[in-house]
Design goal:
Blueprint (H helix, E strand, L loop, with lengths): L4 E6 L4 H11 L10 E6 L5 H13 L5 E7 L2 H4 L5 E4 L11 H22 L5 E4 L4 H10 L9 E3 L2 H15 L6 E2 L2 E3 L7 E3 L4 E4 L2 E4 H5 L2 H5 L1 H7 L1 H9 L5 H16 L6 E6 L11 E9 L2 E4 L7 H26 L1
Parallel strand pairs: 1-2, 1-4, 2-3, 4-5, 5-6
Antiparallel strand pairs: 6-12, 7-10, 8-9, 10-11, 12-13, 13-14
The protein binds nicotinamide-adenine-dinucleotide (NAD) and (2S)-2-hydroxypentanedioic acid (S2G).
Enzyme class: oxidoreductase
EC number: 1.1.1.37
Pfam families: Ldh_1_C, Ldh_1_N
Amino acid sequence: MAETLKVVVTGAAGQIAYSLLFSVAKGDVFGKDQPLELLLLDITPMMEVLNGVVMELMDCAIPLVKNIVATDDPMVAFKDVDAAFMVGAMPRREGMERKDLLKANVKIFKAQGQAMDQVAKKTVKVIVVGNPANTNGCILSKYAPSIPKANFTCMTRLDQNRAQAQIAAKLGVSNEQVSNVIIWGNHSSTQFPDVAHASVTIQGKTMSVPEAIKDDSYLNNEFIKTVQQRGAAVIKARKLSSAMSAAKAACDHMRDWFVGTGKNWVSMGVISDGSYGIREGLMYSYPVKIQDKAWTIVQDLKISQFAREKMDATAAELSEELDAALAECEA
Ligand SMILES: NC(=O)c1ccc[n+]([C@@H]2O[C@H](COP(=O)([O-])OP(=O)(O)OC[C@H]3O[C@@H](n4cnc5c(N)ncnc54)[C@H](O)[C@@H]3O)[C@@H](O)[C@H]2O)c1
Ligand SMILES: O=C(O)CC[C@H](O)C(=O)O
């Protein structure tokens, strides 16, 4: 059997973690024959709740789980970890603005970056889920300078899954028939869900999504808005932020990072190297291909004027967020 993989989940007493831990524990992410040590981090007042989660994980009696550590100490939680799901952060509730989240959450990622820098494996693969996910990811990486920047990513897979599901429903096909939908930019309402390069297979015939939908007005308006506003719509309906779908997307993201993407691409927030004219250093969602546990940005896609404007608008929001976060961390 393979060596035990150490996986940390932060915000482990919260609602996303409740779904995420079960999927990770039963092998959906790292494989059905990969033994795991689960490190669960939350804050001190949540230790009793976290203890309940540990009891439930034990009671699942999953053979892959060799050890569980529950802690409120980041230095314990990040020690020698191979993979990190950074979920621990306040979610937005109805009536709250994104800016309120930035203030509340960004310092968590500064402190956790500093701890990771000292004790995590230098090969650790990190997905940031806690919002504002892109900017938190930048801050985490900044404060963990001994870990390569390529090891820090943030989650826009939920947006990709949402976009894919909208197109599949519109065309009356199953979700896996739709591929290569792209999410550009921020995991926020300025994100640009782009289907110009996406394809769909209908009754054995593969064609581009715009060709299949035959309704550019829908694709350029209602479709984009629905995906951009989906998180807010879930909050309005549930009075709670999305959790089951967020956990599923986090699993998809990390599984693809470990296993690879094959011929298709997926979207993830990665630290920009300036590709597609985006400011270097922003954590911007791009289409990526993954092989041997390393991602590369898909290059040379043709960008229309319409797309360019949307890509720049979400980059401008990310620039503002990053500047505000850096000021907050230095205050
Ligand atoms: N990127 C995405 O697509 C996406 C999707 C859904 C939700 N989110 C975000 O994920 C985050 C978590 O959402 P949730 O619904 O699970 O929230 P939740 O409130 O149910 O759980 C968050 C948990 O994080 C813990 N926490 C707070 N500060 C911490 C710290 N310093 N260290 C460790 N743990 C800490 C809390 O105690 C709580 O248990 C939110 O910021 C939410 O907005 C992101
Ligand atoms: O706070 C929001 O508007 C979104 C919450 C979460 O990130 C989601 O996409 O479901």
